[in-house]
Amino acid sequence: xxxxxxxxxxxxxxxxxxxxxxxxxxxxxxxxxxATVAVMHRELLDKRQWLSPDNFTLCFAxxxxxxxxxxxxxxxxxxxxxxxxxxxxxxxxxGSIPCTLMVVVATALFSHWQDNRWAQAAxxxxxxxxxxxxxxxxxxxxxxxxxxxxxxxxxxIASAAFLLYVWLAVPPIEIxxxxxxxxxxxxxxxx
Amino acid sequence: MNIxxxxxxxxxGTVTAFAGLASLPVVQDALVVQHHVLTDTQLNEAVAIxxxxxxxxxxxxxxxxxxxxxxxxxxxxxxxxxxxxxxIIPLVHFAGRRMEHPRVKSILQTIVIASAxxxxxxxxxxxxxxxxxxxxxxxxxxxxxxxxxxxxxxxxIILGAALISLSASSLGVLTKVI
Lengths: 191, 178
Known about the structure:
The structure holds two protein chains of two kinds. By secondary structure, chain A is mostly helical. Chain A contains nine helices and no strands. In chain A, helix 2 (about 15-25) packs across helix 5 (about 70-110) and helix 3 packs across helix 7 (about 115-140). The model of chain A is unreliable at about 1-10 (pLDDT under 50). In chain B, helix 1 crosses helix 4, helix 3 (about 40-50) packs across helix 4 and helix 7 (about 135-150) runs antiparallel to helix 8. In chain B, about 75% of the residues lie in helices and about 0% in strands. Chain B is mainly alpha-helical. Chain B is built from eight helices and no strands. Chains A and B meet through helix 3, helix 4, helix 5, helix 7 and helix 8 of A and helix 3, helix 4, helix 5, helix 6 and helix 7 of B.
């Protein structure tokens, strides 16, 4: 595992590098922000080692508790860990401007899009792939914790969250806050 | 409508919502019911547009802003979308310093794991909506297989899926013509 204080020990990436990575990878995934998080996991941890697994967990968990779009909160938190306030602002801008421009263009062209069966066919295929990406993302975010004796705990917490949401229609934020309380009460996990 | 008022109304939606389209009822109440600057049809269109372009679902407020007030409205929507994200900075600052504490670590891990369960639940309506015929089902199954077994970039998987769906659709048109 990497040193959790990446920024202090390794200087961290430059603002240009942050702008480059967040604009390229935080904007172009169909299927919503959660699928994008899997892409960011690969780019920030596996490929570049900018963030430690601990810091990724930190940003991901807190982004879920931040109001608004989780993905943008995640970008902001990661940018802040990488390069302080300027890193946070650059990551937020880079993570939101390109997809915003695409939505503005799409909204302006909407009447044309709506009737174009070729565009619709392509979009249908892309969204089907996005379902697979969303399912895979569940594994991407859970599996670093799924080891040793913690396996049972991980399966139990994930199933409980799933069932509370699907069967009892508990709002997601309440499930996440409940998870936080459970996490505080549980004895520390031993891998 | 005044752009600053539009920003504040959209912000009221985004800052009180914690997932995807959770801000929708607030935006609908403010813009459709109270101020009459948007129709329900436009709101639906905004959501549909955002789901067929890349990026997070929360982007629909940009589309809503555009419908209400053109480009300046879209800027107001963009600002309303990004403002709440800044709230994470004090959270990361506070929790990051205590990350070594086992209890803090345990809290964060439990939240992440619960999110994974929630995400799987969120995939259900998405699948019901998207996997409507054998071709889309096959695309999803093959994509999942590729994602789990290879390190192929998701961008290629999405482009490949779009291309296959497009080819299947044009083949369908050809067979109808013949």
